[in-house]
Each structure stands twice: as structure tokens, then as C-alpha cells.
Amino acid sequence: MSKEKKLIIEMLFNNWGATSDRLTKQWIEHRIDLFMKYTLKSLLLQSSQDFTCYVLYDPKSENLVQGILKNYPPLPSNICFVTPIDYKAHVIQDIKEFKYLYRVYLSSDDMYHKDFIKQLHVYEPQKGTVALIPQYGYIYDSVQKRLGNFFFWLPSYGATLIYVDEYLKGQAARYSWRDALKVPREFIHIKEPIWINHIHGQNTGTTFDNVLTWKIANVHDACTLEPWNNSKQPRAVFGPEITKPNEIERILNNFF
């Protein structure tokens, strides 16, 4: 294992107030089920398992989360549900022998292409780069079984890079994916869909019908757009929808 970079996937579960019922048993059961059926499968499918994933949950839901997890097979050693405080302690132990920490971002219901982690290890960013931004992916509605190309100017995916010694000095929280267009950055996987934004009926963000309207005149394929380097005039583009069942299956097999 390379000692140059440590990849840690930082995954929020219910430790922020996006939805009012996030601490209830029903919500937690449903979201853990989504994690197991989709996101965990995507992590297990990764062609490189040289990463650690922490799923951060609210300490107030400790008993519920840990109790529901017992209904499933044990997670592999590199994937763990933790509180935010425990997360920080784990990261400090994980990175001590490395030069760089890659904070890799993924929602607990979304997916990465099976080679994403492998390609992050291989990729050599320029000196001074702080953020790696993959703007190209898919929207997948697992209820309606609908899939389409999707471009998003500031996706909650990708990675931010920090020197380990800076992290250990308490400078870790300076940047996240939200700051990616404010810091030295590189666009990766250009015109190559590398993530899936998963719509499943309990999303707080959008619906498949909504994104059908996110188009630009004369742009048929969202993945033909050039990287969008402008946070003041946001751009999100859908299309085309992929309708052939065998093509949908082929694509999804690369993600989970």
C-alpha cells in the first residue's frame, strides 16, 4: 500500500439537519437499507479496496443505528459507522504514516464507478491543488428504474487534499467539497460519468421529473459540456435519458 496518500471516504448519514425525521427508527431503517443495497455494494465493487470509509451518524441515534446494523452481515473492516467525534479520532490514527489525506465525499445513498478509488490512487494532481472535481455522472431513479446523463457544476463528490501534518495541526476543516470552486482545483473524469446521484423517493434535494427540465438549448448530451469553472452562475444539465434496458443494466453493473 502506498504511503503517499490515504483515501478516506467521508459519508454523512443523519448527523446534519436536512430532514426533521432523521433520528426516527423508520427513517434510519430505510436509509440503512438504501446504504446496504446501493452504496455498500458500490464500495465493495471498487477495484481498489485501498480506502477507509466512515459513515457519520448523530450520537443521539447511537442505539437505533447500532441496533439496526445488527440485522445485517458485519461490515468489512474498512467501512464503519461512527459518530463525528469518533471519526476525528479514527482519521488521526489512519493517516499518521502518510503524506497526504484525501477526503473523498459520497452520500450514503449514492454510488461511484467501480474504478473510482483506483483512479484516484493513480492520478497525480498538480502541486498546490486542493480539490479534485468530477462534474459528470448519472441520475438514477431506483423506484421508476430511470437513468440519464447528468452534469453538475459543484457535485458533492470528488476529493479535497490536505497535507497530513497540516491536518494533525488542526487545519483539516478549512475546505470541503462545498469550497471546491474557491480553491486551486482540477477537473477529473472530464466527460466521463463517474458517479450516480440516486433518487429513491425520500430525497430532500430533487426528483427525476425535476431534472428532466434542466437542459440547455442545443445540448443533447450533458456529458459533452466542457468543465464549468463558474460558481456565480451555477449550471446543472440533464440528458439524454437512457431508455434501453440492456444499456441501463450495463451501466449500473459498473456502479453496484
Structure description:
With 256 residues, this protein is α/β, with parallel strands linked by helices. The protein has a single domain, classed as Spore Coat Polysaccharide Biosynthesis Protein SpsA, Chain A (Alpha-Beta Complex). Helices cover 25% and strands 24% of the residues. It contains 7 helices and 12 strands. The strands form 2 sheets. Strands 3-2-1-4-9-6-10 form a 7-stranded mixed sheet, with helices on both faces. A hairpin with a 4-residue loop joins strand 7 and strand 8. Helix 1 packs across helix 2. It is globular and about 50 Å long. The mean pLDDT is 94.
Per CATH, the class reads Alpha Beta
* Helix-strand pattern: EHEHEHEEHEEEEHEEHEH
Helix and strand content put the structural class at: alpha/beta
The profile of the biggest β sheet is: 7 strands, mixed
Total separate domains: 1
Q: Tell me the strand order in the biggest sheet.
A: 3-2-1-4-9-6-10
Shape category: globular
Q: Any idea of the CATH topology? A: Spore Coat Polysaccharide Biosynthesis Protein SpsA, Chain A
Helix content: 25-40%
Keywords, please?
single chain; 256 residues; Spore Coat Polysaccharide Biosynthesis Protein SpsA, Chain A; seven-stranded mixed beta sheet; five-stranded mixed beta sheet; 7 helices; 24% strand
